[in-house]
Each structure stands twice: as structure tokens, then as C-alpha cells.
Specification:
The chain is α+β, with helices and mostly antiparallel strands and about 375 residues long. The chain folds into two domains: about 250 residues, 3-Layer(aba) Sandwich (Aminopeptidase); about 110 residues, Alpha-Beta Plaits. The protein contains nine helices and 17 strands. Strand 1 and strand 2 form a beta hairpin. The protein starts with a helix and ends with a helix. The relative contact order is 0.18. The mean pLDDT is about 95.
């Protein structure tokens, strides 16, 4: 089946995160597409998370190459699930993030099977990446010995001429403020939890400055950042709030540690505010001088006909889970814009280039075994 047909079929299935019927329909479609190839393809269901599809050419716990991705998307208008092509750009929900590249993974599997490549190869597509990837976490918990020498990660959409070599470490911190209720007309009789929360936030901002469209980006963007993701406190207008919470989203570079963040936060707390780490991970860092990366870059430059640059990405990647198990992660995606927006699109030529880069790279790896 042609790559474009698979992309269009995947997009037409409304796999908004949490829509389990559509997600299951999409997974069954992928399984059916791969059935003629002879690949081993399982839909792994979880009791407390949505399913994952795991396709491979052999049953093993240690793969030469794995592809990681997802098939869920953020909500969109109905018309965005009908793809349209204008001037070589495919417009649709999931065009860039990341059904085009889920289709590439499927085609790579078909290629490996058809050419009987001497590689232990597979792909894993999760179904709730847009809301935290609990499905991938549950899958990896069931497969504690699963490893890969190389992970191909196409979920870094933006520019086919850029290979991402660094992703930051996401850390979610919950602030808890405790106060004492009083009538709004006599604030001196209480302690305003909201006020205490924002006094702490002001302290945090002294260490981690704010950036927006007004301030513009700093000269060096490879720095630790934080934004206040959610904030809540108080119930009615005339009562001093006795409690308040905020969720902070930190993005740490590889030179920062969780212990260092905790130390900084401790210095920022006011007497009525505490914090807890709700989630932390690790950054993903790839050595630009690694010979495997060098081979991949040469192929990418040959196929695109353009120089390939190494770049950093402030966001996180699901591939950090296998990076933590020793994988070399190659983060490379196609060209497009509008991820999560109404005008989401991907340049079809770049998707075709990624598909060709992958198959030639897999062929090269197999030839060296």
C-alpha cells in the first residue's frame, strides 16, 4: 500500500486521545495493513491505560532498532480529519503530529519484512501521548527487559534539515499553599493562601525568569525554564482563601539536576507554602560525533540534497524511556507547521524523504552486521 494512502487512512480515523473506539479501530487498521507482510503485530491492552500496538519481525527483548511514536491526536474540527493537499502540503489533524510518521513506521516494517533484512526491528505506537503517554509507560512496565541499540524518533516535527540532538528534562512541581479563612472585608484576620502562593511564585521567578512574545527569546535558549500550567485557590469572592495550589512545568537542560531544582525551590518557599515533585524524567542527549549519527546524517544529506544541521529542542520526547535503557536516540522528522493548531500541515516531500532515509539507514545497518 502506498505511503500517502496509509497516511490518509490514518488521519481519517478520529483518534483523539481518550476516544477508545476510534483508537481501537485505528490499531486494527494498522494490524490489517501489516498482516500480509508476516510481521508479528500485537495490540497490547492495559487495565489502567489505553492500548499500544507493538509490531516486530522477531520476538526478542533486545532490538537492533525500534521506532517509537503515537497515533492519538488533539481535538480538532471534523473537517480536519479529511486531509487536503495544497501546493505539496498535506493539511489535517495529525499530519505533522504524527500520523504521517506512524505511516512511515508501518512502511519501514513492510520494507524490513519484504527484504528480509538481518535486523531485529520493530515499532511501538502509543495512543495517549498527547496526555502523558501512560499507555507507553504501562507497556514498558510489562516489558522491563525491552531494549534497543537504536531508537528512531520522528515525533519532533519541524524541519527535515534538522536532527535533534538534545531534549530537555520535564519536571512537574506542585505548590501547596495553606492559609486561614477570614471574611473578605477583614483580611487582617486571616492568611490569604493565594497571596502566599504568589509570593512564592515571585521568588521562583527571580531564579527562572519569564519569557513571552513581549520579552522575546533570550540570546541563549538552551536554559532552564518554567511556566505556571494551572493555578487554583478560593471558592467565593468574600472569603479569604485557606488553600491554593499551582502546577509548575519546569524544563531542565542536561546540566541541571533534580536535586539542584529541589534546592532552588526550597530557597523560594514562603512559610505557608510547600512543594512536591509530581513527575520527573531525564533529558535525552545524543553525541553528534557518534559514528552511527554520522552515517545517518550522510544519508539524510544525500536524500534531501541539503545540509543537515544539529539542533536542540526544548520539549520532551517519549524516546527518553528507552534512552534510559541505553538506546542511541535519533530524533528526526519532516517539515511542517501548526502542530495542534487549525492550520496543521506537513510537507509531503519531507515525509517521503524521511521514509527513504529510514529504509536506506536500516539497509546500511543490516549490511554491517
Amino acid at each position: 500500500m502506498e505511503l500517502l494512502k496509509i497516511i490518509e487512512d490514518l488521519i481519517s480515523i478520529k483518534t483523539v486521545t481518550g476516544q477508545i473506539e476510534e483508537i481501537n479501530r485505528c490499531l486494527e487498521y494498522i494490524k490489517d495493513v501489516l498482516a500480509p507482510s508476516g510481521a508479528i503485530t500485537d495490540i497490547i491492552k492495559n487495565e489502567y491505560a489505553s492500548p499500544v500496538i507493538f509490531s516486530r519481525n522477531t520476538d526478542t527483548s533486545h532490538f537492533d532498532v525500534l521506532i517509537l511514536g503515537h497515533i492519538d491526536v488533539v481535538p480538532a474540527k471534523d473537517e480536519m480529519f479529511t486531509p487536503r493537499i495544497v501546493d505539496g502540503k498535506l493539511y489535517a489533524r495529525g499530519a505533522l503530529d504524527m500520523k504521517s510518521f506512524a505511516a512511515v513506521a508501518i512502511q519501514s516494517m513492510q520494507y524490513v519484512m519484504a527484504n528480509k533484512l538481518n535486523l531485529k526491528f520493530g515499532f511501538i505506537l502509543s495512543t495517549d501521548e498527547e496526555q502523558g503517554s501512560a499507555s507507553l509507560e504501562a507497556f514498558l512496565e510489562k516489558h522491563p527487559d525491552l531494549k534497543a541499540d537504536i531508537v528512531l524518533d520522528n515525533d519532533v516535527g519541524g524541519d527535515v534539515c534538522h536532527i535533534i540532538t538534545k531534549c530537555k528534562n520535564p519536571v512537574y512541581v506542585r505548590l501547596h499553599a495553606k492559609g486561614q479563612a477570614a471574611h473578605g472585608s477583614t483580611p487582617w484576620e486571616g492568611i490569604d493562601a493565594n497571596e502566599q502562593l504568589f509570593l512564592t511564585w515571585r521568588n521562583i521567578r527571580q531564579l527562572y525568569p519569564a519569557y513571552d512574545l513581549n520579552t522575546k527569546a533570550p540570546q541563549n535558549t538552551w536554559i532552564d525554564t518554567v511556566h505556571m500550567a494551572t493555578v487554583a485557590g478560593g471558592k467565593v469572592s468574600n472569603i479569604i482563601s485557606s488553600e491554593a495550589t499551582a502546577l509548575l512545568d519546569f524544563r531542565l537542560t542536561e546540566s541541571s539536576t533534580l536535586e539542584g531544582l529541589k534546592h532552588n525551590l526550597q530557597q523560594c518557599m514562603t512559610p505557608f507554602v510547600t512543594f512536591e515533585i509530581e513527575m520527573s524524567s531525564i533529558p535525552v542527549v545524543t553525541d553528534e560525533n557518534n559514528p552511527i549519527i554520522a552515517d545517518y546524517k550522510v544519508l539524510a544529506e544525500k536524500i534531501t540534497g541539503q545540509p543537515i544541521k544539529f539542533e536542540h529542542m526544548g520539549g520532551a520526547t517519549d524516546s527518553r524511556a528507552l534512552y534510559a535503557r541505553g538506546a542511541l536516540v535519533i530524533m528526526h522528522s519532516g517539515t511542517g507547521e501548526g502542530m495542534h493548531a487549525d492550520g496543521e500541515y506537513v510537507v509531503l516531500k519531507s515525509v517521503e524523504q524521511i521514509a527513504r532515509i529510514q529504509t536506506e539507514f536500516l539497509t546500511l545497518l543490516a549490511s554491517k552486521k
